[in-house]
Amino acid sequence: MNRRRITFAVVFVVLAVIPFFLNAYWVDVLNSVGLYAILGLSLNLIVGHAGLFNLGHAAFFAVGAYTAAILNTSFGIPILWLLPLSGLAAGLFAVLIARPVIHLRGDYLCIVTIGLGEIVRIALINDVFGITGGANGIFGIARPVLFGFTIRSPQAFYYLIWSFAALTVFLFHRLEHSRFGRALNYLREDETAAEGSGIDTGSYKLVIFGIGAFWAGMAGDIYAAKMTIIAPESFSFWESVLIFTLVILGGAGSIPGVILGAFLIVGLPEIFRDFANARMLVFGAAMMAMMIFRPEGILPAKPRAYRLADVRNLVAKEGTK
Amino acid sequence: MEEFFQQLTNGLAVGGIYALIALGYTMVYGVLKLINFAHGDLFSTGAYLGLTILISFGLTDRLGPVAGVLLLALMVMGLLAIVGTMLERIAYRPLRESPRLSAVVSALGASIFLQNTLMFVYGARFQVYPHDILPDTALDLFGIDIPIVRMLILLASLVLMAALYLFIQKTRTGTAIRAVAIDQRAARLMGIDVNRVILIVFLVGPALGGVAGLMVGLLYGQINFTMGWIYGLKAFTAAILGGIGNIPGAMVGGVLLGVIEALGAAYISIAWKDAIAFFVLILILIVRPTGLLGERVAEKI
Q1: Higher confidence at residue A127 or residue B89?
Q2: Least packed by Cβ within 10 Å: which of A67, A187, A190, B115?
Q3: ipTM of the prediction
């Protein structure tokens, strides 16, 4: 336990100071890692904690990004103020479209999410409602402004993204160790038993889809501000696969695992840039190999462990609510 | 009216292709309860291998169009059967006892691997099938000119589907496949070699998918390493539409989806053509998840 804490502390410190030691290119790479980490954490809620196969997560990312882009370019609303709005748009969207299909079993839900992701992408390309700019996307998105300071350089974005990531880690850790988090894991392990214990599985699944999408939407807002141009190609099925893979390979249900996954997903292709064409081959082979040899991921989630004395104290204090 | 018939026959031809691919999905799902994500890429492998064999051996130059294409189809089927069994051995057999998620991820990985192997070997640009293999003429049906290629493809699909149907319904092996699809453990208790059945499924399914790829190459003239993805997903929709695990269902679903898509593209909007299949998928999963021909099972989907 202590060794883990020390490792995390060291990683935290390294991440806090590393922009001063790297050139702009690598800081930007770390920015990508950060964004993927946030996306991965949001998907982790759905896939890792609730055990729902979601291969259309890029759609929520897209809804958030496009909401931010449209509201910013059309009405001039500052980007950071749009964070909750992007999240809300994505979250509501997720709840609306997941509602009819949430009861489907694993593989079917998987295919439906793929289909939904594709429908969103095609809708964006076809300039649905006339506001998405079609295949060219939307450009001219403003930079975020924080207390009068405009965030423009990679280093500035680094701190914005990673602060947000740190906040995400903190909040999701709390969620994991709450009643809600425990109920989700129960749902994942055995849905029938969970239902029998009084957990309304349908509602919980919908809510977690909403929360996961909400967070992906906020990540979309930051992404839009960072790129200032967004187009439908950034939100393809491949993106969903990347995010899904980083969660699975890193360790589904485990926050450190997902962050490690983000580093690998972005970092490894960067390091092996010379083997550009073979990258994807290795990627596919790695996925197969991981599932055969280490399906729980590189840094799997630690099983919940409670000391009996603590549980007794808790029950004595709060009663069995 | 002419437009309608053109689109209808177009839809039927494409539908036949979807049906052949869908059969591969449905058979594998029936016996392994696994969605073989890599099946679409087996389909594109068939298209590419067909092109390679065609060009290198000059089959149609030597044997004429009919015999040439037939031999080509047989060779493609044979090669794809081998690739299919290799895929099963490497990516799926080790995960027989594992939870579903592992097999799904492995299937995804296999799909990525296959797709990029194709890109690696053949390049990222579209590859073109020679145009002069099959006659470019049109048949006069009820006063409307329908390309003969389209009719031939449709005919070929129907023949293959009929052959598969007879195989599944009338032979012992076919019955064994159906038995394993219903209940693997009971089938084993009845003395059926489940491993052999799975092997046969991975011989036949990919073979049909490969032939479908060859047909797409002949019908549309060009192929690309990403087409496996989109055809695969649509074929999967077709399989669900007909009832996953149900072989006649896959045939019906494929043809039906092809027609819906062609008519939808013509009369609603061509830009949304690909999305039509996804809308159908979501609709069928909400309204009738067991599919059109599927049995109502007590198990919740």
Answers
A1: B89
A2: A190
A3: 0.82
User: Which residues from chain B sit within 8 angstroms of residue A116, using beta carbons?
Assistant: 278, 282
Burial B26-58 (b: 16+ CB within 10 A, else e): bbbbbbbebbbbbbbbbbbbbbbbbbebbeeee
Residue B233 tokens read as: 């997903």
Say if the Cβ atoms of A278 and B286 lie within 8 Å.
Answer: no
Task: Say what the pTM is.
Answer: 0.87
The residue among B271 and B161 whose pLDDT is bigger is B161
Test the A interface: residue of B95, B97, B101 with most A CBs within 10 Å: B101
- Distance, CA of B68 to CA of B132 (rounded, Å): 12
β-pairing, B127-128 with A145-146? unpaired
**Structural domains of chain A ordered from first start:** 27-318 (1.10.3470)
- Report the C-alpha gap between A252 and A243 in whole angstroms: 11
**Chain A residue with minimum CA distance to B300:** A105
Residue B177 has pLDDT above 80, yes or no: yes
User: What integer pLDDT is reported at residue B298 of this predicted model?
Assistant: 47
Mean predicted confidence (pLDDT) in B164-173:
92
pLDDT of residue A319: 67
Average pLDDT over residues A142-166: 88
Q: Do B278 and A287 touch (CB under 8 A)?
A: no
Q: Is B130 helix (H, G, I), strand (E, B) or coil?
A: coil
Residues 6+ apart with CB under 8 A from B249: B26, B239, B241, B242, B243, B291, B292, B293, B294
Element spanning B217, H or E: helix B194-220
- The whole-chain average pLDDT of chain B stands at 87
Average of per-residue pLDDT across A166-175:
94
Domains and CATH numbers, chain B: 2-287 (1.10.3470)
Residue A248 Cα, gap to closest chain B Cα (Å): 8
Nearest C-alpha in B relative to A249: B105
H/E segment holding residue B127: strand B127-128
Q: Tokens 């749009």 sit at which residue?
A: A82
Q: How far is A180 from chain B (nearest CA, A)?
A: 23
Encode pLDDT of B129-138 as tens digits.
887 777 777 7
Q: Which two tokens stand for residue A212?
A: 């996961």
* Distance, CA of A134 to CA of A122 (rounded, Å): 9
Selected for mutation to probe chain B from A97, A124, A287 (highest B CB count within 10 Å) is A287
Separation CA A156–CA A223 (nearest Å): 14
Query: How far are the Cα atoms of A21, A100, A238, A320, B17 from residue B173, in angstroms, in the given order?
Result: 67, 40, 39, 58, 25
Is pLDDT above 70 for A186? Answer: yes
pLDDT beyond 80 at B155: yes
Q: Say yes or no for a CB contact (<8 Å) between B106 and A292.
A: yes
Q: In this complex, is the C-beta atom of A196 within 8 Å of any C-beta atom belonging to chain B?
A: no
Cα–Cα nearest to A288, from B274, B297, B28, B108 = B108
- Cβ atoms of B76 and B50 within 8 Å: the answer is yes
How many CB pairs below 8 Å do chains A and B form together?
A: 121
Query: Residues 282..301 of B with a Cβ closer than 8 Å to A: which?
Result: 282, 285-286, 289, 300-301
Q: Are A58 and A239 in contact (CB under 8 A)?
A: yes
Residue B301 has pLDDT above 60, yes or no: no
